[in-house]
Specification:
With about 220 residues, the chain is of the alpha/beta class. Helices cover about 50% and strands about 10% of the residues. The protein is built from 11 helices and 6 strands. Strands 3-2-1-4-5-6 form a 6-stranded parallel beta sheet. The longest helix has 16 residues.
Length: about 220
């Protein structure tokens, strides 16, 4: 397997989406939920279920439309969407192990970049996490004009690396967007498991717990 470069997803690959989501959830509960109606733990289960049902979509209006089926919300969904992104961005912290891994790639001059689904708030998350400063380049799907798994964004990223797709390893946590999309253009793939079983028939080339696992797996360093 002749891997010459890497592409990474952002959320739950190079930073913890879950930590940021929990930060939003706590702020949302404190701001909009009556504690006499739901305990925080009850609310957390409800909103996680809504998040899962909308397949963690970047279109966060879907999340709040789904949440309304279980909880009374008195403002329109767009209001809560803005609250969501502001809260998530405020809750982003660097993953120091991931950043150390990326620094090693830079030291070795190994080509890499980031391809993330989302909109303008992804830029702030990249900055807050430190990934934006480390990355030779990053692509945000909302800027590009189509979201993973569309083939065009993967091909454009390969062109930025100046590599053929078959020489690139795409690393991500979402089977339906990261792994499927990368495989469609011929990239190798590594799936970040987060203690889950791979949900689809098309298997990734590797399954890892954290991006730093790539170092031993591929004998990079």
């Amino acid at each position: 397997m002749n891997i010459k470069g890497f592409l990474y997803d952002l959320d739950d690959t190079l930073i913890s989406r879950d930590n940021a989501f929990l930060g939003f959830t706590k702020k949302f509960y404190e701001s909009f939920i009556d504690a006499s109606d739901f305990s925080y733990d009850e609310f957390l289960k409800i909103i996680r279920s809504a998040d899962k049902k909308t397949k963690w979509s970047t279109e966060k209006k879907l999340l709040f439309d789904e949440l309304r089926k279980s909880i009374s919300l008195f403002k329109d969904s767009e209001y809560y969407v803005e609250f969501f992104w502001n809260s998530v961005v405020e809750s982003v912290d660097p993953d120091l192990k991931a950043n150390d891994h990326l620094k090693k790639l830079n030291d070795l001059k190994i080509p890499w970049g980031v391809v993330t689904n989302g909109y303008s708030f992804q830029h702030t998350k990249l900055k807050k996490s430190g990934v934006g400063e480390l990355a030779p380049f990053y692509m945000v799907s909302g800027d590009f004009g189509c979201h993973k798994p569309c083939e065009e964004i993967f091909i454009a990223a390969a062109e930025k690396l100046n590599l053929e797709c078959e020489n690139i390893l795409f690393v991500g946590d979402t089977a339906e967007t990261d792994i499927v999309g990368a495989q469609k253009v011929g990239m190798k793939t590594a799936w970040v498991t987060m203690d889950r079983k791979y949900p689809l028939k098309n298997k990734p080339d590797f399954e890892i717990d954290h991006v730093e696992d790539l170092e031993k797996l591929l004998d990079l360093f």
